[in-house]
Write a structure and sequence with these properties.
The structure is a single chain. The chain is an alpha/beta fold. It has a single domain, classed as Uracil-DNA Glycosylase, subunit E (3-Layer(aba) Sandwich). The protein has 10 helices and 6 strands, in the order ααββααβαβααββααα. It has a 6-stranded mixed beta sheet, with helices on both faces. Helix 1 runs antiparallel to helix 5. It is globular and about 40 Å long. It starts with a helix and ends in a 13-residue tail after the last helix. The C terminus is likely disordered.
Amino acid sequence: MEEQAIALRELAGQIAVCPRCDLSKTRTHAVPGEGSPNADIVFIGEGPGFYEDQQARPFVGPAGKFLDELLASIGLRRENVYICNVIKCRPPNNRDPLPGEISACKPWLDRQLEIIKPRLIVTLGRFSMNRYFPGQSIGRIRGQAKRVDDVTVVPLYHPAAALHQASLRRTIEQDFLKLPAILAEALKKNDQPREPEPVQMQLL
């Protein structure tokens, strides 16, 4: 969809010069996101790291290579999906994003999702999970699809977790293999006609 592509490009231009938090003073580049403007699946990570900050692209470091492998395992490539982060600028020393930074970036992510209108959102890591499931434990709910408003959301471990804890690699791979069936179900739900509003009869 050309209109969606144009809208995302314009938004990326605004994100690139965003001054809303102190990360704007330490970043090399903002990292808006990339992929298909009308993707059925959006993957939301946490924040850019060193390589992402240098290249202005999401998931290009070691965790990004693993994400590419995971996508390939279900027959997808980056061009088929959209990949972005909860925050668009790298925190110094790759520290966790602060609540104020997440809040400052929220309108950007909200707008991206409005433009793309995905059927399935996959959160990668606890900070993106908290957007939809505040206070939950990722170990408890990972891999379980939930309907949030009109979209299906699946929380998964961040691919970087497998780099720090090798035992999680198999878990992440298995959770990824569930996504095609979850997407098929989400597409089915979205294609169903809405229930007509009940008509209130007025007595004269």
